[in-house]
Design goal:
single chain; 125 residues; mainly alpha
Length: 125
């Protein structure tokens, strides 16, 4: 691993964490949900549109995927929100978990399908 990759992941992580924080300030607990859903879509789309086709440098792929999106989405915030919602009732926490999980899966699938549809041939094709 070279310094360019390390710096890219560090800067991406810093920006992704700040973006998630700002969403949570702006939207409260829903901000974490939106961050995780948007991040699911973005990671799938970026992976299958840009990374798989070799359109970006490896250091930039790491900065965007691992750094930015990794910090933008977070399992620990998801888990904390689910526990916090438990005080409103078990259905609220289960609902939040299901929307996060199934919604994230659906948006990742959408990102994959759109990337394949509009991305053209892969680098190996």
């Amino acid at each position: 691993m070279n310094i360019k990759t390390i710096m890219s992941v560090a800067i991406g992580g810093f920006l992704g964490g700040i973006t998630r924080y700002e969403l949570s300030v702006l939207l409260g607990d829903d901000g974490i949900l939106y961050a995780n859903l948007i991040g699911s879509f973005l990671l799938a789309f970026i992976t299958y549109y840009f990374i798989e086709r070799g359109l970006l440098a490896a250091w930039l792929n790491a900065g965007i995927g691992t750094g930015f999106i990794g910090a933008f989405t977070t399992f620990s915030s998801l888990a904390t929100t689910i526990v916090k919602l438990e005080s409103q009732g078990v259905l609220a926490s289960i609902g939040y978990f299901l929307v996060s999980s199934l919604g994230g899966l659906a948006l990742a699938l959408l990102g994959f399908m759109l990337a394949r549809k509009y991305g053209g041939p892969r680098k190996n094709d």
